[in-house]
Amino acid sequence: HMPGGLAWFVAAAAWHHAGPRSSRSSRAALRQQLPAAPPLPEEGHEIEVRCERVAYGGLGIARTDAGATVMLSDNTVPGELIRALVTRRRRRHVEARTTA
């Protein structure tokens, strides 16, 4: 008979070791299940998006029709339709400056 705390620790360790291991094949299978990322607009292109919300620090967050995330410069209000110029393309989002 083991003390209560030790029995819990042994059971947790056994569960951890029984679980699936991270391997290249399991990561590749997971990658195949994920949906493809939406295409990002190119730098220098003008886009029209609707501000969804304002993030901490005042940056507006919007999405293109294709679903790509756009981080807008200051002075945006949720619900506002905005024209913006893409200034920087990042891995998962683009940064844009409002033009009108």
Name the average pLDDT: 78
Percent strand equals 25-35%
Shape: elongated
Task: Give helix % range.
Answer: 25-40%
Radius of gyration: 23 Å
Count of individual helical segments: 2
- The arrangement of helices and strands along the chain is HHEEEEE
The largest sheet has its strands arranged as: 1-2-3-5-4
Largest sheet: 5 strands, mixed, barrel
Describe this structure in words.
It contains two helices and five strands; from the N terminus they run ααβββββ. It has helices spanning 4-18, 24-33; strands spanning 46-54, 60-63, 69-72, 81-89, 93-98. The chain has a five-stranded mixed β-barrel with strand order 1-2-3-5-4. β1 (46-54) and β2 (60-63) form a beta hairpin. It is elongated.
Map the helices and strands:
Elements: H1 4-18, H2 24-33, E1 46-54, E2 60-63, E3 69-72, E4 81-89, E5 93-98
Parallel strand pairs: 3-5
Antiparallel strand pairs: 1-2, 1-4, 2-3, 4-5
Structural key phrases:
2 helices; alpha+beta; 100 residues; 5 strands; five-stranded mixed beta barrel
Summarize the entry for a quick read.
This protein has 100 residues and is an alpha+beta fold. The protein is 25% helix and 32% strand. Strand 2 and strand 3 form a beta hairpin.
